[in-house]
Write a structure and sequence with these properties.
Blueprint lengths: L14 H15 L5 E7 L6 H9 L14 H16 L3 H18 L14 H5 L8 E3 L2 E2 L9 E7 L2 H6 L5 E10 L13 H14 L8 E4 L4 H11 L8 H5 L16 H4 L4 H16 L13 E8 L4 E9 L2
Parallel strand pairs: 6-7
Antiparallel strand pairs: 1-4, 2-3, 5-8, 7-8
Length: 323
């Protein structure tokens, strides 16, 4: 790849999706024929304190990171805001979070690349002593947080005509829509992904689909509260009723809209710069019958939802199998 044009893209945890969008723009403009999008992250060379400090640079630094706010702290604000806005008890909140965690750890059992596959029930998580599941940022506990992870992912992209000419299995990006919000969480509602809803709505419209057309989704579960908010942003349940997606089995691997069959960030791992690209790889492999994790029977449409920072940047991508 010597002498080829190379561009670095920064959007915190959504950098991978932002890079894919730049590749789409380059291909559609006719400037390039093929694009290679690579996401990579090396996190384990720092200790937990070091990683926490670096990640905090993705917050609104003057009012958040510089003042000691961490990403567990920011998503704890979402959890507290969600609890207050919709009137959940501490026990209700803990139970819905434990169900998200259990589901994703179990899904990871089938993913050979997952960081923490566990056959663990939500009751097991709820019954853990504080020493095994300590509070990280109240009300979020250890089992509500994604993993410090090294990882990389890559996709080759071109237009459909070129893809057909090389007789390869084709998955079309039918829509990739983004929406940005204020960087500071204090200027946004802390009980929903407001801009995420906008990005997802745009993606549905661009791809000419509805929620009912989706066979699966990979969503940004950096913390368990984020997956609950993603259910509501996708429209799986009304606002404040994300827990019903778990109670009714909708988001499990045998449900109507399986979520995070790979194990998600919670159990697969969250190598920040690679996450958006890995979501695209996971969706593509699922659609071509080569799933990293549980393989669905003949899926045709998948969606990924990737956020950066405390959902200041939001990317919704619709993938369709066309061959």
């Amino acid at each position: 790849i010597r002498f080829k044009t190379c561009v670095k893209v920064e959007s915190a945890c959504a950098s991978g999706s932002a890079a894919i969008l730049q590749a789409i723009n380059a291909i559609e403009s006719g400037r390039v024929k093929f694009a290679l999008v690579i996401g990579a992250e090396k996190m384990t060379s720092l200790n937990t304190k070091g990683v926490t400090e670096v990640l905090a640079k993705g917050s609104y630094w003057p009012q958040e990171g510089q003042m000691g706010m961490t990403f567990p702290g920011l998503f704890a604000e979402y959890a507290k805001g969600y609890q207050a806005h919709f009137g959940f008890s501490n026990e209700q909140l803990r139970q819905m979070f434990a169900k998200v965690s259990s589901k994703n750890h179990k899904n990871a059992l089938l993913n050979p690349l997952a960081r923490m596959p566990l056959d663990i029930s939500y009751e097991d998580i709820l019954n853990m002593p504080d020493s095994k599941n300590p509070i990280i940022a109240d009300p979020l506990r250890l089992f509500d947080c994604s993993l410090i992870t090294d990882g990389a992912a890559a996709v080759v992209m071109t237009n459909i005509e070129n893809a057909r000419s090389i007789k390869h299995e084709i998955v079309e990006i039918a829509a990739l829509e983004s929406a940005c919000d204020y960087l500071s969480l204090s200027k946004r509602p802390n009980y929903e992904f407001t801009a995420g809803k906008v990005a997802i709505k745009r993606a549905y419209e661009k791809a000419k689909i509805t929620l009912n057309d989706i066979d699966f989704a990979e969503v940004h579960d950096c913390f368990t509260i984020a997956e609950i908010l993603a259910y509501e942003a996708l429209g799986i349940t009304p606002d404040g009723e994300g827990y019903k997606a778990l109670e009714e089995g909708i988001v499990y691997k045998d449900g109507k809209i399986p979520i995070n069959l790979s194990g998600g960030l919670k159990a697969k791992g969250h190598p920040v710069g690679a996450t958006g690209v890995s979501m695209a790889v996971i969706a593509t492999r699922q659609l071509t019958g080569k799933a990293l994790g549980f393989q669905l029977n003949n899926p045709k449409i998948g969606l990924t939802f990737n956020i950066g920072g405390s959902a200041a940047s939001n990317f919704a991508t619709v993938f369709k199998r066309i061959s």
